[in-house]
Amino acid sequence: MKQVGAARDLVLGYVHALKAVDEAMRAAIPSLERLADVLGLARSRRINRSGHINTYSYTVHGAGCRFVSDNGTEVDVDFAVDGSEIFDLWRLRRYGQSLPEPLDVTDQDLRTAVRSLQPLLTEVRPGWFSVAN
Which of 30, 32, 75, 83 is most open to solvent, judged by the fewest CB atoms within 10 Å of its CB? Predict the structure, then answer.
């Protein structure tokens, strides 16, 4: 049960870190209406596919973007067709492993933690989650 609590804290930390990334990026790029707009800016070459903005480095990939804070914490997120931010257990584990004090939890503990956080989190498709609005 202790591990599920740690997994729950990890998931909540990821959600908080994702919000911090969103706020920092929108402050740095006033035309950004939502974080997903980073993809369009990179595809249209108005920003580089990778770079550094505020306290984050970023790398645009496929349907998402990886953000790494100056302390090394990694927040990788994909974007659904509607622009909502989505993530899976792999991204949550990567976040936990990148923390200043790394936290490695099992997929089962993460699944249990995510389920315990409904309705804050919604499973948008099998294994992929989004923060409810």
Answer: 30
